[in-house]
Amino acid sequence: MTSAPTRSFSVETFLRSAAIRQRQSLLKDSEKMSDPEPCTIKQEETEAQIDVILEEESEALSEDEEKHHVKNVKEESEAPSEDEEKYHVKSETETQSDMEQSVLMNNTAVNNFICTQCGKSFSRKCSFSLHMKTHTGKKPYKCTQCDKRYRNSRHLRSHMKSHPGVKPFHCIDCGKRFADSTSLRTHAITFHKQSENMKLYLNVRSKKRPYVCLSCGNSYNHPDKLKKHEVVHTGDKPFPCSHCGKSFSQLGNLKLHERIHTGEKPYKCSHCSKSFNQSANLKTHEMMHTGEKPFACPECGKRFRHSSHMGRHMKTHTGEKPHECEQCGKTFLTVSELKEHRRVHTKERPYSCSECGNCFTRLTSLRKHEKIHTGVKNHVCGVCGKAFISSGDLIRHKRTHTDEKPYICVDCGKSFKKLSYLSKHLKFCPGGKTQN
């Protein structure tokens, strides 16, 4: 048979060339070392080791071939013998593959943890285990606040800062704690601008965002981005809208605004096909489907999908309403609420329905109205299955099941399911005051 010598020769040649490559690699590594007495490898010892490896492999192959005959031509007998059925000898390709794996392990003596999925090698077992999770999809590190999972502890620690309860950054002057360095800088610039510790606060910055705005504490990864941001504080608005004349401090904000006029909504929800003109609005909307509310109020524990919603809610605890209407003196939590209120005085209704022409003071009112034409009712009661156009309508409906009466008269203590019921009651209750 001619196949056995050919295979023996190819394996021997492969092993010898691989071993020589290993020896050359080791010699190169020794030359790179900077010790005064560089490590040297004796050529005689290396060659002797190679000869032993080749001899052992050759003997193993010879014994294997003597025990089991390799059939590369047609079988002489149609009925196979018991020995042939009992033993299956690897083909030349399989044997060579095994040899390649053996040499690979020898050549990666330093990086001896090899990924079988992609071939990457690692010097430490922990790095190898961490890498393998990218293939298996395992995420053993779980957030105790919102049940999100991560592949490594570093990512989990970074995520934990998004929760109000985890505040690793503290103010030296007043002791208040913050979830991130940006919040600490903003606090220090607002309340401790004359503090001798100001330099310390400004130095608490991310390596990725070393350029800090001295007006608000925001940080950026490039000086041009910082300059672009600083225009917000100067009041300069060089970018006017060609549709309505409204001006903006940044070009990006103008482009976002123009989508209101063009109707462009490039961000689509994968759950319900609803579209949005901003990616942030899409992310907030998708939380309605997932039920995720990562931001919790530290006062009452109520959870929110967006940090700005939580911030607005927290003002209800302090009673703060800093934005006052110059016409009637009524105060509001946010600037947007004040702007919407001003339309009561100006009678402005900038949002019109394309179907029937009805106009509205608020965009949310228009969106709610438009569902009357489309017939979409995607807010379903979990108790009776009734569907509603808006989440507000669903919340009000649920009170019929729970008998909840959240609107209370401060004069007589009587409670009501709807605000309209309370308003009617106040007209007849002695000393009644309109509830906001």
Written overview of the protein:
The structure is a single chain. The protein is mainly alpha-helical and 436 residues long. Among the domains are: 335-404, 2-Layer Sandwich (Double Stranded RNA Binding Domain), CATH 3.30.160; 407-436. The protein has 16 helices and 22 strands. It has helices at 3-32, 43-67, 82-86, 92-107, 125-136, 153-160, 181-191, 198-203, 223-234, 251-262, 279-290, 307-318, 335-346, 363-374, 391-402, 419-428, and strands at residues 113-114, 121-122, 141-142, 149-150, 169-170, 177-178, 211-212, 219-220, 239-240, 247-248, 267-268, 275-276, 295-296, 303-304, 323-324, 331-332, 351-352, 359-360, 379-380, 387-388, 407-408, 415-416. The protein has a two-stranded antiparallel sheet with strand order 1-2. Helix 1 packs antiparallel against helix 2 and helix 1 (3-32) packs parallel to helix 4 (92-107). The chain is globular and about 95 Å long. The N and C termini lie far apart (99 Å). Mean pLDDT is 71; it is low at 1-9 and 30-109.
Oligomeric status = single chain
Low-pLDDT residue spans: 1-9, 30-109
CATH topology of the domain at 335-404: Double Stranded RNA Binding Domain
Q: How much beta, percentage-wise?
A: 5-15%
Say which CATH homologous superfamily of the domain at 335-404 is assigned: Classic Zinc Finger
Number of helices: 16
Just give the CATH class of the domain at 335-404.
Alpha Beta
Total number of β-strand segments?
22
Given helix and strand content, the structural type is: mainly alpha
> What integer value in Å does the Rg equal?
36 Å
Roughly how much helix do the residues carry, as a percent range? 40-55%
Mean pLDDT: 71
Walk across the major sheet and give the strand order: 1-2
CATH architecture of the domain at 335-404: 2-Layer Sandwich
